[in-house]
Design brief:
The protein is mostly helical and 87 residues long. The protein folds into two domains: 32 residues, no CATH class; 44 residues. The chain is built from three helices and no strands. The relative contact order is 0.10.
């Protein structure tokens, strides 16, 4: 597809990357700039039943059903923020 401004996302969340990530990592709460670090965060703790649910969510996403993936990543974000919670 020829590059142009047909799908201009410059002002949308889809086009907001972490500074210093060379356009590899979308903006995130943890300020992660490395693609591998982000992939690790996204997939850590996805084992056993969670791993099966993750692949079900990926397959559902292919049909543009993102609810399952939203739940999985919401849980990942909550788990990743726990160390920063005030006690």
């Amino acid at each position: 597809m020829k590059k142009g401004n047909r799908y201009d996302t410059s002002q949308l969340i889809e086009n907001q990357y972490e500074d210093g990530s060379h356009g590899q990592v979308l903006k995130n709460l943890q300020g992660i700039k490395d693609r591998r670090a982000m992939e690790k965060l996204e997939t850590q703790n996805i084992e056993g039943e969670k791993k099966d649910a993750y692949f079900v969510a990926v397959r559902a996403g292919l049909d543009r059903n993102y609810k399952l993936m939203e739940k999985i990543f919401s849980d990942v974000i909550l788990r990743s923020l726990k160390p920063f919670e005030k006690k």
